[in-house]
Amino acid sequence: MFFMGVDIGSASSKCVIIKGIDEENESEILATAVIPSGTGTSGPRRAFEEALKSAGMSMTQISGIVATGYGRNTFSDASERISELSCHAKGAVWILPGVRAVIDIGGQDAKALSIGEDGKLKEFVMNDKCAAGTGRFLDVMARVLEMDVGMLAASDEKAEGIVPISSTCTVFAESEVISQLAKNAPVPDLIAGIHQSAAARAASLLKRIGATEPVLMTGGVALNAGVVRALKRASGLEIRTSPFSQTAGALGAALYAREKSG
Questions:
Q1: What is the mean pLDDT of residues 71-85?
Q2: Which structural domain range is residue 38 located in?
């Protein structure tokens, strides 16, 4: 039996297909897909179709679909819809058994989750009222610097210092970066400051839940090694990532689909 999880975020759509249960009672990931378009766009359908194509499967072979994320209620093919908090927790436990905290930084919000010894979500805090420290924040900063957001981490590695960005508002931080550029601040040092600013927001969320290790970072920003390094410094915690960090929510949704089949 095969199961699918679809995570429809504000900025991207993710899909994961898993094989139900093998001889060791474990699930196997067969395909993943990430489309940089979120709710209200063709992204969810494209992620769905790309995952099926990657797995060499048809819709008729899928035994259950769970949708999660900001746009979960818009996906008509789902048999059930579950909150992204529960799905990220479920996916994180699969990725990193024994995980005790999750920091999820997505396109427009950030969440810190505390996971109990039983692998279940204990508590959470969210930064959902402001884009500061999120993927959107990094997109805006990359645009100001006239570079692709995917180039930020590589430039961060060349930094010889950190130009601090003190503003906690994306709009004011943008003005601050422009001002620093006018002063000929080294771009790598400026990017290190941008990453430090984003990490400070995430670290405060981890502190609020009393996070303990192991900590897993999920969401698209987990792909930015510069933010991960800055978050380690800001939190004093070892921050783990995985090749499945960006698709953790969709993975958790697929695991719930498997559970509910049976």
A1: 94
A2: 2-96+246-260
